[in-house]
Write a structure and sequence with these properties.
- The protein is of the alpha/beta class and 360 residues long.
- The protein is built from twelve helices and eight strands.
- It folds into two domains: 190 residues, Rossmann fold (3-Layer(aba) Sandwich), CATH 3.40.50; 147 residues, Rossmann fold, CATH 3.40.50.
- The model has no long low-confidence stretch (mean pLDDT 95).
- The protein has a four-stranded parallel sheet with strand order 2-1-3-4, sandwiched between helices. It has a four-stranded parallel sheet with strand order 6-5-7-8, with helices on both faces.
- The two termini are 15 Å apart.
- Helix 5 links the parallel strand 3 and strand 4.
- 48% of the residues are buried.
Length: 360
């Protein structure tokens, strides 16, 4: 397949105090949540001047990706559009159409299978095409979920190696170190529908299975035999709705015979608000209260291995690279180009058209 452009898609975030509430209204639109409740979350952003780092991080990612594509001999531009804040997806598509773009390969800034990390992006693209009136003139395909790509995983391997070494240099025995791989919690019902129904025997479905596979590979490469677990953060649903557990703070409270903890933000590609607040602020405070030595390893961000991985994901689609020749380093993967019908659907929100990966 030949492509005219890359579409980088992000969550979006406020860039000033006056943006915070309008942004949160966008995130929660259709749920009828009053501003008083939104303010409970707004203080996370207000503590950083109302500015989420995610937009600047995506600007940096767009620049790095554009430079790497050019260096790889791919003369295609990168467009960037967000789900919840400017620049919005429909604006990016309208500009692309004006520039003569007809086929785009989309890269969401999330590596795993779930509603919010895959399906919702596919619904967003379908909505943006409809809002722009471009359904018949602009085609959007999607790269596969890239959780198993070595370029995505390598920054985590490097981080765990450095973190374990730092803990031991600080006087902590290897047996006293715990590695907590942290990812965003999601409703248990949503998790069960993730991963094309291939992991019904795993609590947390494909979403958890994919991250467990990545974590196991990271430990095997970076610190064989080290104690580790997958934990969750950033729960936002009502108390009556079961979400994936354990929460990272509960996991810290439950640690026994440990003096040092490494937090690995396995579910995130950059140091955005949920990393800075939930991990760097709240989890760090919990660890300090418990007397635990603490470090948080880096996200992939714009590290060269990760940027090269994104270029490789585009190249494998352009060349039609066979599955057996695709980069993959975990027991699960490489993942599908075309998402299966109903995969990661959210019945609470009702059926919505979603781009599958090859056809709108």
């Amino acid at each position: 397949m030949s492509y005219d452009a890359v579409l980088l898609s992000g969550f979006g975030g406020p860039e000033g105090q006056e943006d915070v509430l309008p942004f949160l209204r966008n995130v929660t639109r259709g749920r009828g949540i009053p501003d008083e409740r939104l303010e409970e979350v707004a203080h996370h952003y207000r503590a950083f001047g109302g500015v989420s780092p995610i937009n600047e991080q995506n600007r940096d990612l767009k620049r790095a990706l554009q430079a790497a594509l050019t260096q790889a001999g791919l003369d295609i531009p990168v467009y960037w559009g967000n789900r919840n804040w400017a620049p919005y997806l429909d604006e990016a598509l309208e500009q692309a159409a004006k520039d003569g773009i007809r086929t785009m390969i989309a890269i969401p800034t999330s590596a795993y299978s779930s509603y919010s990390s895959c399906r919702q992006y596919r619904e967003d693209w379908a909505d943006a095409l409809e809002a722009s009136g471009l359904q018949t003139t602009l085609q959007i395909d999607k790269v596969r979920q890239f959780f198993s790509h070595p370029g995505f995983i390598q920054p985590f391997i490097d981080g765990v190696q450095s973190g374990v070494a730092a803990a031991m240099q600080a006087g902590h025995d290897r047996s006293a170190i715990e590695v907590l791989f942290s990812t965003h919690s999601i409703p248990i019902d949503d998790a069960a529908r993730s991963g094309a129904g291939l992991f019904t025997d795993v609590e947390g479905g494909g979403y958890a299975a994919q991250q467990l596979a990545v974590a196991a590979h990271v430990v095997a490469e970076a610190a064989p035999g080290i104690s580790w677990q997958l934990v969750y953060q950033s729960r936002s649903g009502p108390p009556s709705q079961p979400w994936l557990e354990p929460d990272i703070n509960d996991a810290l409270e439950a640690l026994e015979e440990r003096t040092a903890v490494l937090i690995v933000p396995l579910g995130f590609v950059s140091d955005h608000m949920e990393v800075m607040w939930d991990l760097d602020t709240e989890a760090r405070e919990t660890a300090a209260r418990l007397g635990l030595w603490f470090t948080r390893t880096p996200t992939p961000g714009t590290q060269p291995d990760f940027i090269d991985a994104l270029v490789d994901l585009v190249q494998e689609r352009i060349s039609g690279r066979p599955t057996g020749q695709r980069a993959n380093t975990t027991a699960i993967g490489p993942w599908f180009d075309v998402c299966r019908p109903g995969c990661c659907e959210n019945p609470r929100l009702g059926f919505k058209p979603a781009i599958a990966g090859l056809q709108p």
